[in-house]
Write a structure and sequence with these properties.
Elements: H1 11-41, H2 45-81, H3 85-112, H4 114-121, H5 128-140, H6 143-146, H7 148-157, H8 162-184, H9 194-219, H10 231-284, H11 289-307, H12 311-344, H13 351-383, H14 387-440
Helix pairs in contact: 1-8, 1-10, 1-11, 2-3, 2-5, 2-7, 2-10, 2-11, 3-5, 3-7, 3-10, 4-5, 5-9, 7-9, 8-9, 10-13, 10-14, 11-12, 11-13, 12-13, 13-14
């Protein structure tokens, strides 16, 4: 694949070229999740609610894995800008080893805390057994979920967005094929219900892991176990964690918010409301594809130019991304006003769930403007090696602004009040992100 020079040329063109494969990859990931939602919804509201309870925990674990990936991507992109290939190899390889250590911890802790954790989130006697059926399988094979992100992030940091897209597409295609077979028992397969969804996910992710490791090793030559002394590994881990740990803190904040949202909504509207936000969140993922793709594109552009001391291009990229976030958010909000209910009806015929999901989409789509601004400015801070400001922005933003607004909203107007509170909080934090990034970069 031709490697384009990110240190010269049009920034908007680079963003477009790098973002498109990532958007397509995100589309594959969205289809992956929506396929699960669609077929599990056919099992009934309790099964759909059970998936809603698993979502915060899966996202929290994914956030920690993404933190490791972001630390590796930040270091690797700057190493590429400085043309240090040996350091690129060490960061990629040692990042994978670090993720394997994390896998062992997640598997052990997760399996032995399922009852306590999901009961705390609000799962009752009807949904808890379904949650445990799914998560026991997920925890047991979590290695196939948590290992690939490091490889994908390192390839993206080097400017290759195509191969991570291929990996995500492989996962999506096989999940779409396997979901109906394993959940409902078509052809020669037994009907496994919600367990079938878990097995489909694990098999699809396993194929994705094989693909991403192959690309990273055979095409990019980023995986190498040759090192002068073992201290190189620990030095890589230290540097990855130095950036990754603050990133984990930041990535955990939205998942903390998701957990708080699930708990608040469960206490307000029960299983129907939890099912509604499960459908709403998965549907919302359609409109986050573009912000996700652009956010990934910012990493190699910012990192490589920062590593090459081309700061003027970094500052231009920041200003340009702010304009995109605002314009795109307003367009999506306008589009979803008439389309929310028809889209939600694809996944459920329960009119109460449809209405609650529509409220979620109408309100949270507008709040996505602030969320996107926060996420993109956070990526810029992290990529240039200043994760402290990312932590300040996100931790204070979520703990002292968004969550209090959600709690106040619940007290005033119940379920809808919770959503409005989160929306307003996200907008305020997004404005703060713009001001902070201008002052600290």
């Amino acid at each position: 694949m031709k490697q384009h020079d990110l240190l010269t040329g049009s920034i908007p063109k680079h963003i477009l070229r790098l973002a498109l494969p990532s958007i397509a990859g995100m589309f594959s990931f969205v289809i992956f999740n929506l396929t699960d939602t669609y077929f599990i919804s056919q099992l009934g509201t309790n099964a759909l609610a059970a998936m809603g309870f698993t979502f915060p925990i899966i996202m929290i674990v994914g956030a920690i894995s993404s933190g490791i990936s972001m630390g590796a991507a930040s270091l690797l992109s700057r190493a590429k800008g400085a043309k240090d290939f040996h350091l690129m190899q060490r960061i990629a390889t040692d990042g994978i080893l670090l993720s394997l250590l994390f896998v062992a911890i997640v598997s052990i802790v997760g399996i032995f805390t399922m009852d306590e954790v999901f009961t705390l989130l609000g799962a009752g006697s009807e949904t808890l057994p379904l949650v445990k059926d799914y998560m026991l399988i997920w925890y047991g094979f979590v290695i196939v979920v948590l290992t690939p992100p490091v490889c994908d992030s390192c390839m993206r940091a080097s400017g290759d967005m195509i191969r991570p897209f291929i990996v995500m597409s492989i996962c999506a295609v096989f999940n779409i094929i396997l979901d109906p077979l394993l959940i409902h028992g078509y052809w020669i397969f037994p009907a496994l219900g919600i367990k079938g969804a878990a097995y489909a996910t694990i098999i699809a992710r396993s194929l994705g892991m094989i693909a991403t490791l192959s690309f990273a090793h055979f095409h990019h030559h980023l995986i190498s176990f040759k090192f002068d002394k073992i201290s190189e590994i620990f030095n890589s881990w230290k540097n990855i964690i130095k950036i990754g740990l603050p990133s984990v803190t930041v990535l955990l904040m939205p998942q903390l918010l998701r957990s708080v949202l699930t708990t608040l909504v469960s206490s307000t509207g029960g299983a129907i409301a939890v099912a509604a936000i499960a459908v709403g969140a998965r549907t919302e993922s359609f409109i986050t594809m573009v912000p996700f793709g652009i956010g990934l594109a910012l990493v190699p552009i910012i990192g490589q130019n920062w590593g090459a001391n081309k700061f003027d291009r970094v500052y231009f990229t920041r200003k340009y991304s702010i304009k995109i976030a605002i314009i795109y958010g307003l367009i999506m909000f306008t589009i979803f006003i008439p389309l929310a209910k028809p889209i939600v009806r694809i996944f459920t015929s329960d009119e109460q769930v449809v209405l609650q999901s529509a409220y979620y989409l109408w309100i949270m789509t507008f709040g996505m403007i602030g969320l996107t601004l926060t996420n993109w400015m956070s990526r810029i801070f992290t990529t240039v090696g200043r994760p402290f400001w990312t932590v300040v922005l996100n931790v204070i933003g979520i703990l002292l602004i968004v969550i209090p607004f959600a709690i106040i909203g619940k007290a005033i107007y119940g379920y809808i009040g919770i959503l409005i509170g989160i929306c307003l909080g996200q907008i305020l934090v997004g404005i703060w992100a713009i001001i902070l990034s201008k002052k600290k970069l």
